[in-house]
Amino acid sequence: MSAALLASGVGLVAQTTGNGSAGCSIGKGGQSVQGLCQAANSLHISVAYSAILPVLILSIGALVLLAVSAVLPKRAYPGLYPVLSTAVGGVSLVASVWQWYNVPGGGQGSVEIGGQVFFDHFAALFAILISVAVILSSIASDSYLRREGLDGVEAYVLMLMSATGAALMVESANLISLFLGLEIMSIALYVMAAYHRRRTQSGEAGLKYFLLGSFSSALFLYGIALVYGATGSTGLGLIANYLSNNVLANNGILLAGTALLIVGLGFKVAAVPFHFWTPDVYQGSPTPFTGYMAAVAKAAGFAGLLRVLDQGLLTQQTDWRPIIWVLAVITLIVGSVLAIASRDLKRMLAYSSISQAGYVLVGVQAASGTGKSASLFYLFTYMFIIIGSFAVVDAIQGRGESHSDLGAMRGLARRHPLLAAAMLVLLLAQAGVPFTSGFLAKFYVIQASVQQGQYYLAVIAMVAAAVAAFFYLRVALLMYASPVGAASGGPSGAGSLAVGSAGAGSAGVSAGSSAGAGSAGAGSAGAGSAGAGSAGGAGVPAAVPAGRAPSGPAGATAVAPASRPPSPAGSALDVEAEEDVFGAGLAPIPGFDTAPATGAGTLDGPAGEAPYVSSTNAMVILISVAFTIAAGVSSFAVDFAKAATTVF
Amino acid sequence: MKTTGIPILNIIVFLPLAGAILCMLLPSASWSPTVHTSSRGSTGGGWSGGGSSGSTSGLGPSSALGPAGLVALVVALAELGFVVFLLIDFPSSGHAAGFQFVSKHSWIGAFGIDWNLGVDGISLFLVAMTALLFPVAMFGPTLRGNSRAFMGWMLLLEAACMGTFLSLDLFVFFVMFEITLVPGYFLVAGWGGARRNYAAMKFFIYTFAGSAFLFVAIIALVFLAAPKNGGHETFDLITLARITSSLPHADQVLIFCGFAIAFAVKIPLVPFHSWLPDTYTEAPTAASMILAGILFKLGAYGLLRLGIYLVPRGAADMGPVLLTLAAVGIVYGSLITIMQRDLKRLVAYASIVDVAFIVLGFFAFSAQGVTGGVLEMVNHGLTTGAIFFLVGIIWERRGTLRFADLGGLQKSMPIMAAIFLAVVMSAVGLPGLNGFVGEFLVLAGTFVTHRWWAVVGTVAVITAAIYLLWAYQRVFQGPVTNPANETVRDITWREIGWVTPLLLGIVFLGVYPRPFLDRVTPSVTYLLDRVEQAAPNADVPKTKTVTYSLPANQDVRGRPGSAPGGSGGSGTTSAAATGTGGSK
To answer: What is the pLDDT of residues B457-506, one digit of tens each?
Structure first.
């Protein structure tokens, strides 16, 4: 794959030989690179390997992993691959940091390899982001994959391949290489989404992601063609040059091309109205992969968007800024509002990630150096937050992702105080509460927006933050909900749930076919928008008869759709629950929307047992929380992001 | 600018924070040897028989505080000690209008943000009130549930409040202003009444949404000011104040509107007040005390410090709007309050009237009005804190606060009735207690500049008497209709010990407000000078003449309200009024 990548890169470079020698004279990566450079010069092709170090390392790392797994007997060393993957991420991290400190042109950056890639702070910082995401996700995936019986080399190879694509995207200086990176990343992500073979939701997620993703890729490609038609080039620098030297008498083609590029990248970053895949994919994908997806795909998509809009089409900003303005506003509003309606943890985080994308769009909309580095900072902090959050979710869900509704968070503070505290920090960071990185990130984005006089956008964004605070705090409240005494109410008392959960524990991953078939109907009923506003809360209790209570969690383990509707005790509560906070007409969350005394104690998490946090998960959570607080209290991360503003 | 050898303001902010972290780390199990807070809480003094009180105070279930409670107690009292030190050390001469004890360190250099603390006459007493009210709120009311988390949140809240009052950097201000929401939220949600989740959420969302405007306004202000600061963005309050008063008129108005919306939600002024009754009724006693006593003041203080200080012209332009809102709030709040059937709800609505009164004073733009407003902030903290404390005691004993269920409590709890009456009198504005001085200054100051608004404001004085005294009647007097009211236990010595500091403050500020006025007046005068300079053509020019016509006759320290006792104060009323008439 890597060879093919390089070959195609060389091929493209060969077409634009004009830049070849000039690029080489700038790109001095070292003595060996110099030698290669001279060799390349004879062919009028310059390859500055230092500019594509992270891409090389990640792709070669993926191949090494594959090779190692081919040599070793199957399942001989199950712990080897995450370690190798982490190591590859580590080497890539070192390389990106090296890049950061060795940006050519005195920090101004340069265009390398025949105008295909940028070598600048922006790319280096994104490469750091991606490398760190690979490291964290590799660590976090290990316990999940082993628990689900999915361990093997493939997951890590896919992760490294998608990281390769992402790393190429962030540094691409040409729409073609951008598309190449986009596809390398996306195809690996499609497979990752469908990785949990025994969960139908996972397969559904993969298929959905793939179909919609390839559609958006096609649109993106068409956008490239139109832009090429309008400007005569696919190189961002050449496009910018052309547009600044020529006034287009009829810019309809360019406008259409710009719009299609925005659609294609908007899909990757899950901006409304291109977000429809997000909840289902995030919910269906294996939890650690979801975190990785939310961090890396979003970051790479935004990096591409910033490259295209800020560097290629900066002269056309009067055209695209209104588009981004509208996208930002509806993304913020829709993401926040729909997150309130969701009753599943992963789904809620998916909508939350949509609304977070809205803030980055606010930074993009500013179309300035500040906006660029603000977006970068936002994505960087969000990477830690979201990977950490999904690591927490992973610990809470348990085997088969069976406890993923919000009710599973109830009473977490008593069952596992440290986990609850970590989640609290991460939630508050997403809400943008001061002394977390999330606050500084919002601050930076809003600052960039206000700097450009976008007061209304800034106010809308902050009011959306207040709306979003609702669902973050709701989870926080559930975790810290006061202890409930003996279950006093519901028809399905604590006993039935305890039985069900015990069954899940003993039956393990064995595919209980009868339970699975029984719950399939209920699962598909809630598939559209599980417990969301459209259902009005009325249908859900009906879909879950109380008789299914004992088999509920076990069925979830086997086939998983049963994790969608509220668990049995919850449905019993739904009937009782009259008072709904802010009367949104939604299915109430047991223990939050209803007073604890009414028997919500039956939902005291999975039968009151403490969630199992593996040591690897704990490490990821710890790193995430530490960074979230450190970057929120001190200024080091901001300084880095600010340094990455240099617009080449 | 005064400094000390020790970084006292940093200590004041970080000490509770450290205490909060320590509390959270401690084991939560409350150990059995009961710690009588009364034996330590006697620092407030004022109650005799400390030796014999140990037996009576041990009855309360709150005595088992656990190690976290002990730590919190030590921290809160140490904090009070530092604040007392600050009070003593603060220059009392009339020359110190600026900020004292300034402590400035670079924080986030990329944005021009400094960790910048300082105190002036206005914030000094708010800090003192905060330090006084927190220990009372933490250890006075009976605590149920997890003491460790409770103490941690309370100390965190104290640190955030201190940070808000002391910050000289807009970023620090905003951060501290926002962070108060988190402990506030968890205090209401964790220890509140039946509908606490709803109340806590409403409280958080309302204020968070309001802060959106503050956030944007602050950033906009910084950017608009940057060109005049050599292109450097700075959040430094003092630097900004030099620049922003000369910003274009329209910008100032818009920015002020942003500030005003945020603070109006927090205060809350009337159209933005709907979160308040729910939150207060559901909040536990301690949180009600702090919410009403201190969190309100964050909004009012912000209005003064950010609104009037930074964008004086915008403030002058929008002044009539806020005056009108305040007047509406007074009338509307009074009417709603009178109709309440629940004691705690009544006190909550009464707070709306009180804070509207504070805003009325501020936007009168006269020295008396603003000084009175500042004094009212402190008064309201003390009085409402005490009232919520006492109401909480009744609730603990009776389990209900509906007037229909109460009545005749005087017979079973005579001491309680006496204390309650004293506090109610302070709230009503009885001469000789603090409420009178503040109300008098506000009304006199408003009358000077905005006569008709003052007339409306006077309504509050009358209606306050109606609803508070009527409430007192319905709770404590009359025949005992409900047999449960016959055997209610009176206020314990421990509780008396905790309420005493507040009572002392009430009496002290009422009888001898001069130390207060001495320190507040220079800062207020400085503030109003800015308004006057920035908006010479606005509605304000009268302020100058009034402001200085009074000190011309009397020493700066001999401001009208500072005369001891009520009669002296009213004696100067006519002087003030005539002086105004002459100057017009």
So the answer is: 888 888 888 899 999 998 888 888 888 888 888 888 888 999 999 999 99
User: DSSP letter string over B350-375?
Assistant: HHHHHHHHHHHHHTTTSHHHHHHHHH
Whole-model pTM: value is: 0.80
Closest CA to A523 of A550, A551, A562: A562
Are B65 and B143 a contacting pair, CB within 8 Å? yes
Whether residue B548 contacts residue B145, with contact meaning beta carbons closer than 8 Å, is answered with no
End-to-end CA separation in angstroms for chain A:
30
Chain A hits for B174, Cβ within 8 Å = 434
* Residue ranges of A 418-447 with Cβ closer than 8 A to chain B: 428, 433-435, 439-440, 443-444, 446-447
Q: B175 contacts in A (CB within 8 Å)?
A: 434-435, 439
Chain A contact for B197, CB < 8 A?
A: yes
Query: A642 and B110 in contact by Cβ < 8 A?
Result: yes
- Model confidence at B576, pLDDT cuts 50, 70, 90, reads very low
The per-residue b/e assignment along B220-229, b for 16 or more CB within 10 angstroms, e otherwise, is: bbbebbbeeb
Tokens at residue A407, please?
A: 């009710």
What's the CA gap between B137 and B120, in Å, rounded? 25
pLDDT single digits (tens) B156-214:
999 999 999 999 999 999 999 999 998 999 888 888 878 888 888 888 888 888 888 99
CB contact under 8 Å between A462 and B181, yes or no, is no
Q: What is the DSSP string of A302-328?
A: HHHHHIIIIIISGGGHHHHHHHHHHHH
Q: Please give the distance of CA A40 from its chain centroid, rounded to a whole number.
A: 38
Work out the minimum CA distance from A354 to partner chain B, whole angstroms. Answer: 20
Find, in chain B, the residue whose alpha carbon is nearest to that of A450: B220
Q: Is B194 on the interface with A (CB under 8 A)?
A: yes
Give B271 to chain A, closest Cα distance, Å: 18
Q: What is the value of ipTM here, to two decimals?
A: 0.80
What contacts A442, CB < 8 A, 6 or more positions away?
A359, A378, A432, A461, A462, A465
Q: Which residue has the tokens 């590799």?
A: A138
Instruction: Compute CA distances B282 → A497, B187, B197, whole Å.
Output: 32, 10, 9
- β-partners of residue A364 are none
Strands A110-112 and A117-119: antiparallel
